[in-house]
Write a structure and sequence with these properties.
Elements: H1 2-42, H2 48-55, E1 60-61, E2 68-69, H3 70-96, H4 100-127, H5 137-148, H6 151-179, H7 183-204, H8 211-217
Length: about 230
């Protein structure tokens, strides 16, 4: 009888000890998780958090290379979309070769933007920025204008359309280069600025740049980049 009476008491004590053990395990697990969370998400190559933030960008996104602003992202996309149409325009100039200077300027465009394309894609991959895949409607119009032009009209259109666009991007490069706190964007802006200056010089050497017209047109904004799709 006595053993039968003690059995429920022992069972209740065992259940109490099991419950206490479960609570201790849960508490220890919560402590480990709270310690691991900041390490996991601050790890330099943890880009999932960056991608999630860029999907809903807000004013600034923190990255391992410094804060990433809307202006920073716009510049990265702008460098890419400018290269898409300028490489095509440069190849056309090389193929048509109306003068040695125009051919040389075309070759400069192709070489410079091919290199920039590699750089901008590497930067975009690290910062989780979705790049445009084709020129803007306005840029496609410029390419169509060049394709339709012949002789002296082609030479003038080539020199001035591209000279004007390079002048516009210079303004954006200067603004972002001086204000960005992101080292990847700053380095890209520096390299792009140097490349754009080389292209300006090559275009001006063609002898077809209308500097009076360029002075008026470069006050406009660069060709608008299409809004990137969600990555």
């Amino acid at each position: 009888m006595k053993a039968a009476e003690e059995q429920p008491v022992r069972r209740e004590a065992q259940l109490r000890r099991s419950f206490i053990t479960i609570l201790m395990v849960l508490a220890i697990g919560a402590t480990i998780a709270s310690l691991a969370y900041p390490v996991f998400y601050s790890y330099p190559h943890r880009f999932d958090a960056v991608k999630a933030a860029i999907a809903d960008p807000g004013p600034v996104v923190n990255t391992p290379w410094g804060p990433l602003s809307t202006a920073d992202r716009d510049l990265v996309a702008q460098v890419e979309v400018d290269g898409l149409w300028e490489i095509s325009a440069g190849r056309q100039a090389v193929d048509r070769a109306p003068t040695p200077a125009v051919k040389e300027a075309g070759a400069e465009l192709v070489a410079g933007h091919t290199d920039l394309d590699k750089r901008v894609r590497a930067v975009a991959a690290k910062l989780a920025i979705t790049l445009p895949t084709r020129p803007t409607v306005e840029q496609q119009g410029w390419l169509a204008q060049l394709t339709a032009a012949q002789g002296d009209a082609y030479r003038r259109d080539f020199a001035n359309l591209l000279r004007e666009e390079h002048g516009r991007i210079f303004q954006q490069l200067a603004q972002v280069r001086s204000s960005t706190r992101n080292t990847l964007v700053r380095d890209l802006a520096t390299v792009t600025n140097r490349t754009e200056l080389e292209h300006l010089s090559a275009l001006e050497k063609t002898g077809y740049v209308d500097f009076d017209g360029v002075a008026q047109d470069t006050t406009a904004s660069p060709a608008a980049v299409p809004a990137p799709s969600a990555s």
